[in-house]
Specification:
2 copies of one chain form a homodimer.
Chain A lengths: L13 H7 L2 H10 L5 E2 H8 L3 H13 L3 E6 L2 E6 L2 H13 L7 H13 L1 E3 L2 E3 H13 L3 E5 L15 E5 L1 H9 L14 E4 L6 E4 H13 L3 E3 L5 E3 L1 H11 L8
Antiparallel strand pairs in A: 1-3, 2-3, 4-5, 6-7, 8-9, 10-11
Helix pairs in contact in A: 2-3, 3-4
Chain A binds a DNA duplex (30 and 30 nucleotides) through helix 4.
Chain lengths: ~250, ~250
Amino acid sequence: MVGDAVVAGDADIAPIAALMGEPARAAVLMALIDGRALAASTLAAEAGVAASTLSAHLARLVDGGLVSVEASGRNRYFRITRPEVADALEALARLAPCRPIRSLRQGTHAEAIRRARTCYDHLAGRLGVALLDALVAGNVLRVEEDPGGRPDPVLGAGRSQRYVLTKTGKARLGELGVDVETTARRPLTRYCLDWSEQRPHLAGALGNTLLSRFVDLGWVTRGERRVVQVTDAGRTGLARDLGVAAGDWA
Amino acid sequence: MVGDAVVAGDADIAPIAALMGEPARAAVLMALIDGRALAASTLAAEAGVAASTLSAHLARLVDGGLVSVEASGRNRYFRITRPEVADALEALARLAPCRPIRSLRQGTHAEAIRRARTCYDHLAGRLGVALLDALVAGNVLRVEEDPGGRPDPVLGAGRSQRYVLTKTGKARLGELGVDVETTARRPLTRYCLDWSEQRPHLAGALGNTLLSRFVDLGWVTRGERRVVQVTDAGRTGLARDLGVAAGDWA
DNA sequence: GTCACACTTCGGGATTGAGCGAAGTATCCT
DNA sequence: AGGATACTTCGCTCAATCCCGAAGTGTGAC
């Protein structure tokens, strides 16, 4: 049975585990576990090693397929490539403090963080993805190809795309109390690939503004470790005002 | 919220991952992943290193809490301590061959091996545990405390227990075509802690004889990688003749 | 009692790779 | 254009540890 060739017993886990078994690299991976894309310098500070040292570590992580890079100007942003990597890291983390295991709560945490979390300063997880989908479906944002433009700082896939705010979108958000003009020197819209969903969610100034507004409206509350809870008001408000059906994320 | 203190982001996975990241140790762990307890010499052959080298590796695995030891005469049997360890190993294994992922089939394999597998030469997994339960419930085996007796070679938990074949049990098994007298110089009954179930299943000569008979009867077939498939005949036969309800393991 | 076997401990050799700083390349800002 | 920033590459040092064979300890077999 050829199709069944790759099973647990076969695999050579040593190289992968060794990659995760070095303190600096482990620190990097745990910093990236929630799907953020972080710059090399940020990660160096997180790991507590020199930039040159971390550069070598990152090269090995990329070479091993655990982490992927996206260059943007003079920065290079690193993120975990696939959800399976995060799964393995979490399985190890569950094992690490040999005693204090609270598997039930951890199970709920793992699920909760995939459902709705913050990514930097905006929403991610199934809720983040559903939100972007709804904004596009509701003609608040329009997708544009952006072949000539420089790649989006916090990643864009192969081709670069842009999400532009429509006039109707601006009006709709205004009704919600979202002040779209407050865009300092930061791009209004960006997108960010979600590791748990493998699809983009909304980042950029608008992503941030929306999250803030949701918090102000009492629609969501920020829990521990980037988990985001959606209130009953949020559940109905998101569906009514933005077309984000609860079935798409809850 | 104190109860939620231990979550993925905190843990220091580096020492654990480093333990798994050495080829010889990884080979040991993968050899033990199905819950067997293997002797040091067996593991040395498996890992392809000298006995002295492996001894040091095993000491570190035990020290790290991944593996536990049970001495028996001049042998020392090693096994994986907790199901979480096997989970982490499987998560890594799923990651190891970076390309050829067949997550669906792997998911089914992981499930299948927990449902019914071989352990040495007897049944393990949910089926193995259900079988032992049924044998005890049906008065085929009787549990006895065995405080004075030497610990069972292939582990026994803290205290040692014995499973003794009853007269009615001997008759019942005889009807099934199981020749109980064929016990050479091997203990008739032993038990073996199942990592996926954390409960004992039947090992020893009787465990082996039963598996052989099940195969002869066409009740079970041995698949790849220690997975055991139960046929329709086996499903009904196990329930009818031994009281092993399908709901307890399927 | 003696031998055989299983495993551990010890000592020494060789390899790996983690670490840093300095220099090099590319990009952004003014 | 010039300088600052972000990151990589290079050269080097140093510590960790992986490995083995030989000797030591304890158990089972005859």
